[in-house]
Design a protein that fits this description.
Length: 97
């Protein structure tokens, strides 16, 4: 299983989140997930909101185009990014041909 999948213009990401990190960053592949570190704590949805803002900026889309599909209270999450305009080089995400 891969940590990303294209579904039409949407990019589905499987993420392993590390909250309360010293900085926000895409670490890279971590097994079947993309490891992402964020500074927000995992309290009352703060980490999820921060993750959505971080991914929206990284993929150059509006926050409304990033949707948490599953994993609301877990470190393993699946997110949908609608029509990303930019692919972060560190993420090494390539469209399917």
């Amino acid at each position: 299983m891969s940590w990303y999948r294209w579904q039409g213009a949407d990019l589905l990401l499987t993420v392993r989140l590390q909250p309360r990190a010293s900085r926000d960053e895409i670490v890279g592949p971590h097994g079947d997930a993309l490891k992402i570190r964020i500074t927000a704590p995992p309290v009352e949805g703060q980490a999820n909101a921060h993750l959505i803002r971080f991914l929206a900026k990284a993929f150059d889309v509006g926050r409304g185009q990033v949707t948490l599909v599953s994993g609301d209270t877990a470190r393993s999450k699946q997110l949908r990014i609608h029509d990303p305009r930019h692919l972060p080089p560190k993420a090494m995400i390539q469209p399917a041909i």
